[in-house]
Amino acid sequence: MTVRKTLSIKSICNMEHQQFIKTIEWDMMDKKTFFPLSMLSSFSVRCFLYPLTVIKTRLQVQRHDQMYKGLWDAYKTIYRYEGMPGLYRGFWISSFQIVSGVFYISTYEGVRFLLSRYDADSRLKALVGGGCASIVGQTIIVPVDVLSQHLMVLGYSDGRKDSRKLFMNTLGLSLDPTRTKLQTTIEIIRQIYLRDGIRGFYRGYIASLCTYVPNSAMWWAFYQLYQDKLHAILPIWMSHLAIQCIAGTLGGFTTTLLTNPLDIVRARLQIQRLDSIRQTFQILWAEEHLRIFTKGLSARMVQSACFSFAIILGYESIKRVSIKEEYRSKIRW
Questions:
Q1: Most exposed residue of 160, 299, 303, 331, measured as fewest CB within 10 angstroms of its CB?
Q2: Which of 263, 284, 253 is nearest to 214 (CA)?
Q3: Taking Cα atoms as reference points, which of 219, 231, 182, 248 lies closest to residue 45?
Q4: d(CA 333, CA 331)
């Protein structure tokens, strides 16, 4: 009797497990609810985790360990000489990325929806959708990236001898601590335009595509892959949202390990104003050799894990909140 009861419970659970919606598709959501909440979620995540982006960028563009010895040393040193504003340098410019985020996620979901008409595999849909979304997103956001990265590495010396090496000033700006953030940003825009014209704001565009298109495509593909694998090995009562967050974090780790050298080349090309991807890679190899695979990796791994977890937690939660009424009974948290 007990065995039959156990089998009955398992069969019911299996039926429920098969019936619930694993992936909320584009046509299942109310866009009026989805878009505002998505932008709010993206801004909140960036607000809390932005210091990791600043630290990662500074670690990537330094030569050897001339400024910082690692993730923790970079945090302590930036906070010591520049305070909390140093960890949020360039934040308001970077926050415009939430606009490109709307186009990014719309492209991703739209491509997946189109491919679903041809019964494409879920991983292939994620791969192609992530790549297309990144092309659209980078085309919009590269100028903002260029500006925000110049602001990130532009620290201010407090006059002491040991603090003068803790900033980079590739545009040769007059570093006046009394200058407002807006004035500094306007001066950076002016200097870039005077030196390179409009093209200066798209410096490193090809490098950005070479970095973020495969990064985005692989992240979404690995996210789908890890979801499938985790569903196969974890108990059926496990929270679906928890599985998605774990899958997103694992996807972030995997893509970070595979694309770290590309991200360093992109950052250096945009900030140090080098002429080409090839030249940047040659200089980087001459300076670092095999360390290009680990340079800034700890900061990027922490950043990627935190961002991946937080973005998926917000994104998938918002999709559940935004789902149309007829599908609500089939979703599972």
A1: 160
A2: 263
A3: 248
A4: 7
Q: Name the one residue in this structure whose structure tokens are 């922490």.
A: 302
Q: Distance between CA 87 and CA 54 in Å, rounded?
A: 6
Cα-Cα-Cα-Cα dihedral of 36, 41, 42, 46, to 10°?
Answer: 140
Residues 59 and 283: their CA atoms lie apart, in Å, by 16
Give me the residue spans of the domains in the chain: 23-330
CB 197 within 8 A of CB 183: no
- Residue-wise pLDDT tens digits, 154-207: 765 444 444 445 456 667 676 666 677 788 888 888 888 888 888 888 887 887
Q: Which CATH number fits domain 23-330: 1.50.40.10, 3.30.200.20, 3.40.50.720, 3.30.230.10?
A: 1.50.40.10
As a whole number of angstroms, the distance between CA 169 and CA 188 comes to: 10
More confident residue, 297 or 226: 226
CA angle 15-19-20, nearest 5°? 125
| 281 contacts 300 by C-beta, under 8 angstroms | no
Question: Which residue reads 């400024």 in tokens?
Answer: 67
The Cβ of residue 91 has, within 10 Å, a number of other Cβ atoms equal to 19
pLDDT of residue 294: 75
Q: Which two tokens stand for residue 64?
A: 């050897």
**Stated pTM of the model:** 0.76
CA–CA separation, 116 and 111 (whole Å) = 9
